[in-house]
């Protein structure tokens, strides 16, 4: 079960529609307040929770800390409009495993959630570089390459073949922006630092 926490109904409905396309999602439960989120997390024990940080009844990352304490096995992913480095640091320190901006492309959101479910900690595309701990990538397990989806395997092969984002976009029938986001998230999932290392990994497989 996935818990979606946001005080805007249109955002909750948007995430519900996107998640409804995924076979691993059995149910999406919405919560419009921090109080509802705490209650539902305790009752439902979600495997994943997508949480906004701008709720009227919670300050900053307070809810992330509370949900992590209540349901430690739940993978918490922040989805917000705030790109402030201090807030990203606080969310990760309080238990979040992912941090996304709400204007992230749907394909990139799904790639981020897949990486988080595989055990990675992911900073989404568009989040300021200085927002990552110590000015570098957020800590991630080393190379969960065995957990790639068929689409990610294809993407990795394209990177290994030296394809540019424009060529990858054409191969995958997505926009160039989406291709760029998917590459960034695959690099995060693999636990490597850049495209070159991803290509080297692809050619060793």
TrEMBL record:
Residue(s) carrying 4-aspartylphosphate: 52
Keywords, in A-Z order: DNA-binding, Phosphoprotein
Residue ranges constituting the Response regulatory domain according to the UniProt record: 1-117
Pfam families per the UniProt record, alphabetical: GerE, Response_reg
Entry GO MF terms: DNA binding
Protein's GO biological process: phosphorelay signal transduction system; regulation of DNA-templated transcription
Domain HTH luxR-type: 141-205
Protein origin, superkingdom: Bacteria
Matches recorded under InterPro entries: CheY-like_superfamily (IPR011006), NreC/VraR/RcsB-like_REC (IPR058245), Sig_transdc_resp-reg_C-effctor (IPR016032), Sig_transdc_resp-reg_receiver (IPR001789), Tscrpt_reg_LuxR_C (IPR000792), WalR-like (IPR039420)
Keyword Chaperone (UniProt): no
SUPFAM superfamilies for the chain: C-terminal effector domain of the bipartite response regulators, CheY-like
Descriptive protein name: LuxR family two component transcriptional regulator
Provenance organism: Pseudosporangium ferrugineum
């Amino acid at each position: 079960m996935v818990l979606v926490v946001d005080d805007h109904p249109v955002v909750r409905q948007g995430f519900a529609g996107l998640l409804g396309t995924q076979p691993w999602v059995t149910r999406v439960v919405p919560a419009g307040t921090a109080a509802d989120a705490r209650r539902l997390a305790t009752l439902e024990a979600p495997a994943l929770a997508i949480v906004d940080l701008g709720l009227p009844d919670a300050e900053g990352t307070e809810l992330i800390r509370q949900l992590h304490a209540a349901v430690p096995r739940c993978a918490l992913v922040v989805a917000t409009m705030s790109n402030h480095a201090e807030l990203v640091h606080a969310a990760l320190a309080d238990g979040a495993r992912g941090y996304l901006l709400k204007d992230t492309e749907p394909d990139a959101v799904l790639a981020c959630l897949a990486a988080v479910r595989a055990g990675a900690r992911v900073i989404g595309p568009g989040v300021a570089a200085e927002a990552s701990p110590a000015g570098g990538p957020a800590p991630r397990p080393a190379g969960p390459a065995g957990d790639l989806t068929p689409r990610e395997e294809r993407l990795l092969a394209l990177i290994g073949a030296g394809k540019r984002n424009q060529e990858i976009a054409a191969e995958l029938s997505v926009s160039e922006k989406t291709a760029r986001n998917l590459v960034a998230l695959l690099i995060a999932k693999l636990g490597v630092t850049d495209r070159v290392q991803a290509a080297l990994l692809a050619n060793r497989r």
